[in-house]
Amino acid sequence: NAGVMQNPRHLVRRRGQEARLRCSPMKGHSHVYWYRQLPEEGLKFMVYLQKENIIDESGMPKERFSAEFPKEGPSILRIQQVVRGDSAAYFCASSPTLLGYNEQFFGPGTRLTVL
Amino acid sequence: AQSVTQLDSQVPVFEEAPVELRCNYSSSVSVYLFWYVQYPNQGLQLLLKYLSGSTLVKGINGFEAEFNKSQTSFHLRKPSVHISDTAEYFCAVSEETSGSRLTFGEGTQLTVNP
Question: Cβ contact (<8 Å) for B99 and A98?
């Protein structure tokens, strides 16, 4: 039973380019969360999605960032016109339901470096 | 809104010594509490969680944590650490009313020296 998969594991972009991060949840999980970990900091919630729905995007920057979880395929976190401050590790997690007591299973992360 | 404070950013200990990693939280509603471990360049792995019931929770790798509602704390302990326990440890909380969204502390780097 494969865990949460994220790709790519490492991504290098120049300022102004676009970054696309992919997340495939665990089998049977329909809830996906994205978190960002800046250097020397803890993880910060960005967005929570179910299939075809954004449930909570209160942690997403207002501009340049978007997320989707289509009916088929992985969840995508998209960052347009990247800046150096976007350099961070981006983690995806999945859970089987939305209930707060459910464990979230984390992927290995995508480490984004903006040159 | 909930918040989590991990009181120590770094904790160095010698192998086979006991360790306590401290975590305090604030919330206006009932919460669920979690401890995750992150090894270098990896994702987070759940160590243990408190949902309800007994305030002493046992997790994997010999770790345990105690929920103290009056002190709003959820400290992580291990009686005897190994070199392999060297990692970053994160305390996290989710509220009953906000779904599964997790709020994390800043992390504690545990370094076990021989």
Answer: yes
Compute the distance between CA of residue B106 and CA of residue B14 in angstroms, rounded to an integer.
23
Cα distance between residue B50 and residue A22, in whole Å: 31
pLDDT in tens, A25-40: 999 888 999 999 988 7
The answer for A85, left when phi > 0, alpha when psi is -120 to 50, beta otherwise, is alpha
Mean pLDDT per segment of 10 residues, for chain B of length 114 residues? 90 97 90 92 90 90 94 96 96 78 93 96
CB-CB contact of A92 with B92 (8 Å): no
Q: Pick the residue from chain A with its C-alpha nearest to B99.
A: A100
Among chain B residues, CA nearest to A97: B100
Task: Kindly state the tokens that stand for B45.
Answer: 């792995």
Cβ contacts (< 8 Å) between B36 and chain A: which residues? 106
B98 part of contact set with chain A, CB < 8 Å: yes
- Greatest Cα-to-Cα distance within chain B, rounded to the nearest angstrom: 44
Residue A13 pLDDT class (50, 70, 90 cuts): very high
> Phi, psi (5° rounding) for residue B37?
-120, 140
Q: What are the tokens at B46?
A: 């759940």
At residue B98, the pLDDT reads 60
Rounded Cα gap, residues B33 and B51, in angstroms: 7
Give the integer Cα–Cα distance in Å for A45 and B92.
11
Q: Which residue of A has its CA nearest to B31?
A: A100
